[in-house]
Structures are given as C-alpha cells and as structure tokens.
Write a structure and sequence with these properties.
It is found in: Cell inner membrane. This protein is mostly helical. It is 72% helix and 1% strand. The protein is built from 20 helices and two strands. It has helices at 6-38, 41-51, 55-68, 73-85, 89-101, 107-123, 127-136, 143-156, 160-172, 179-195, 199-212, 218-229, 233-246, 251-264, 268-281, 285-294, 298-311, 315-324, 332-346, 382-389, and strands at 352-353, 360-361. The chain has a two-stranded antiparallel sheet with strand order 1-2. The chain binds zinc ion (ZN).
C-alpha cells in the first residue's frame, strides 16, 4: 500500500469539520436552552390555564408572555385565536394585524396570519373586509379554505352568480360535489329575476339549475310558479307532476298546489286518483289533505282519513279523521273537545326539521337558516318523521 500525500491533508480537515459541527451543535443547544429559560414561565402557565379551560387566566398569561418576548409568532397566534373564540374580535384583529405589520415575517407565517385575520373579520360580521383578505389568499396554499369561506360570504350577501363561480372552482379543485348546491344558487337567481319581473331570465336560470343537477326538485316547483303567473295551469301541473318522476318522496310538498291545479283544469276526479296512488306509495299527511280536497263524497272522505289513520297512527291523521267525522257520528261537544286536545298535542309537531342540525321551521325551506345547509329538510312533518323512525 502506497502512502499518499493527501492523507496528510485529510486528517486535519476531518478534525476541523468535526470541531465545527460540535461548535454549531453547541450554539444550537445554547440558543435552545436560552429560549427555554426565556420562554416566559407565563407561557406554560397560559397553556395550563388553557388546558383547564380557564380562558381568562390563559389570556392574561399569554399577554404577559408576548410582552416579554414580542418575537414569538406562535404565541401571537395562540392569543389571537383565543380572542376570536371568545368573541373579542377587535382584539383578535389587533393581534393578527400586529403580526402582519412585521417586516421580518416569513411568507408562510404571513399567509397564516392573513387567514387568521380573515377569520376574525368573518366572525365579526365585517364581510367585505373578510372577502378582500380571502380573495387575496385564493391562490395561496390556503386556497380551498379561502374559497369555502368566500362561498359562505356570497351566500350570506346573496351574491348568487359569484357563489356559483366559487362553487365551480371548489368542485374543479376536487373539494367535493357542488352540483346540488349550484342548482339552488340558480334557483335563487331565478327568484331574484322573478321579483324584478324578468321571467325570461328566471326560466333561463332554472334551465341551468336542471342542467347542473337533473334530480333537483326546486327548479320544477319554481317553473310551476312561473307557469301559473303566466296563467298556464296545465303547464304548471305538468311541471309539478315531473317532481313525482324525479324524487317521488317530494310529491308531498307539491300535493296541495297540485290539488288546486287539478281542480282548475277540470280534472278533479283524475287528480284524486293520481294523488291517492301517490299517497299509497309515499304516505304523507299533505298528500292525504290533497286527496281529501278533491274527494267530493263526504263518507268517502271519512273512509280515506280513517284508512290512513289505521295504517299511520299519528296525531295528524287522527285530526283529519276528526275533521271528517260528521256530527251524526259523534256529538259536537265531544268532537270539539277532542279537536282541541289534538291541536294542543300537535302544537310544534307539524313543522319541518333540519336533518343536519335539528332546527325546526314552520314552512318547508330549502336552506337551513341555522346550519346554512342546502336541502337538509326531509319533506315530512316532524310527527310523521318520528313515526318513520320507529
Ligand atoms: Zn340545519
């Protein structure tokens, strides 16, 4: 083995590198231990308070910690989030704006502070400010979060064309399927057009709703409304019949309008038979009511209501039987007392209930005012829902 000259050089270089590494480690270690020493005790106290859900004390401790070391970015975030969660939006905004004012903030932390600030504005109801911050973040790593928030803002401000645009972007990003929601936005556009007497615009928006979600019920309901407005009862009826084809369960929602339209178009008998067939397949009190409205014969009406009660033992059905009971069958005072008792028991049980959050509404609604969900209400009244659940 030959001795090579460079071995002589390698030895000191290796030694030098080792020494440098140990120095670096040492410096790192020193910095960390200084941090630990400096990380104000108040920070750990704050964490402890947070864990034991004593937010007031946690905030005091965090403020102390931030004052002692204004460079700790994470502490600012913790403090800002705490303020927001407690509804102290102004203070949360100040904390996040302070962070953003720093020139040395790395870009990732800057975007994190921006999204936090947008959340503060949103929660505080300052939607225009939230919108501009979220819009600035729409091409950042927070893109889907920003777009989802923008969608909520446009829903609240009823800017439906912009909501449609954002929902489309979210769908293209793979954030889920937005077809059903977009169809509702088009329905909202149609209603706005209808209010400003632009029926062509309304019909155009409804075409788009059906195209984006062919199973949507609401466009057909709205088309029927426009046809009625134009005096075309037969066409309106056709639109409502279509609901039975695409989502038969929702026929109940259209049943009373259909009964009226069947009568208007001189088809009371055929309409009664059609609705009765639907009642048998998709029982619902509104369908029974529609059938009863078209049935001319009093004893037949009583029989229909009784049959329904026998198969669906609900208070709603009992109330209908009582309505159809002639005074000959039961003495008037007894009938009246029974009716009052039933009405009392039925109070608050004829509503519709959101399947997502449980919020109840007197009239059927496509958009839950509590949880903002779309089409979260089953087309059945609460009492009937309870029976279905048993
Ligand atoms: Zn809800």
């Amino acid at each position: 083995m030959e001795f090579e000259l460079w071995w002589l050089l390698a030895l000191p270089i290796t030694f030098g590198l080792g020494w440098l590494a140990s120095r670096l480690d040492l410096r790192q270690w020193r910095r960390e231990s200084e941090l630990k020493r400096d990380a104000p005790l108040s920070y750990f106290r704050g964490l402890n308070f947070l864990l034991s859900e004593q937010q007031d004390k946690a905030i005091d401790a965090f403020i102390e910690a931030v004052t002692a070391d204004p460079n700790t970015v994470d502490l600012h975030f913790a403090l800002g989030n705490l303020f927001r969660r407690r509804g102290e939006y102004e203070r949360a905004v100040r904390v996040h704006q302070n962070l953003l004012a720093r020139g040395d903030l790395p870009s990732a932390e800057r975007q994190r502070a921006q999204i936090a600030l947008a959340q503060d504005f949103f929660k505080a109801g300052l939607l225009d400010r939230a919108e501009s911050v979220y819009t600035a973040l729409a091409t950042s790593p927070y893109q889907s979060e920003a777009l989802a928030a923008l969608l909520q803002i446009h829903e609240r401000t009823k800017e439906w064309p912009r909501a449609i645009d954002i929902a489309g972007q979210l769908e293209r990003l793979g954030a889920g399927s937005y077809g059903r929601q977009i169809a509702h936005y088009w329905c909202e556009v149609a209603m706005q057009c209808q209010q400003s007497h632009d029926l062509t615009g309304a019909l155009d928006a409804l075409d788009k709703a059906v195209r984006v979600h062919p199973q949507a019920v609401r466009p057909w309901q709205l088309r029927a409304g426009i046809a009625q407005q134009q005096g075309d009862a037969a066409q309106a009826l056709e639109h409502l019949r279509h609901i039975a084809q695409i989502q038969p369960d929702f026929t109940a929602l259209a049943a009373l309008d259909m009964a009226r339209l069947f009568r208007e178009t001189g088809q009371a008998q055929a309409g009664r038979d059609w609705l009765l067939a639907k009642l048998q397949d998709y029982p619902a009190i509104d369908l029974l009511d529609a059938v009863l409205q078209l049935e001319a014969d009093a004893s037949e009406r009583y029989h229909l209501a009784l049959t329904y009660l026998q198969t669906h033992k609900s208070l709603l059905a009992a109330r209908r039987v009582l309505d159809q009971t002639s005074t000959a069958l039961s003495p008037e005072p007894a009938r009246l007392a029974l009716a009052q008792a039933l009405d009392g028991a039925l109070k608050n049980r004829q509503r519709y209930r959101c399947a997502a959050c449980g919020f109840e509404a007197r009239n059927y609604t496509w958009h839950c005012p509590a949880c903002q969900g779309w089409e979260t209400y089953p087309p059945r009244r609460t009492e009937e829902l309870q029976l279905l659940a048993v």
